[in-house]
Design goal:
It is built from 5 helices and 6 strands; from the N terminus they run H-H-E-H-H-E-E-E-E-E-H. The longest helix is centred in the middle third of the chain and has 14 residues. The radius of gyration is 17 Å and the shape is globular.
Length: 140
Amino acid sequence: MSDLLERLRTRGWRLTAQRRVVAEVLDGDHVHLTADEVHARAARLLPEISRATVYNTLGELVTLGEVLEVSTDGRARRYDPNAHHAHQHLVCSHCGTIRDVHPVGDPLAALPSGERFGFTVSDVEVTYRGTCPDCSATAA
């Protein structure tokens, strides 16, 4: 059973066939699918699943805090099931591919106390940008 499915079961979230398929599609490392990609993959497993059901399920998963909604550079929102493991993102500036990265160290340490302007910082979001190997190869 996937980590996401296990978390949802532990929470007592009612796993209908449609919800289960959406959770299964989101399972895995470095998964950052758009809602349309989730729907296309879910429809291969459960042809009768509607786009509205996928969007509603994704919204519920985000509200529950079980999936992160990631938006970069005005591109379509993507859904990240890695919601319970601290990580940052590496984004290809050309194609939009997103990978999870886990730098060593505390990202807050990079922000000197004088630059916090009295804020009590509760969260840090860092996005690394560059060009993925596929886009680098086509540009060469």
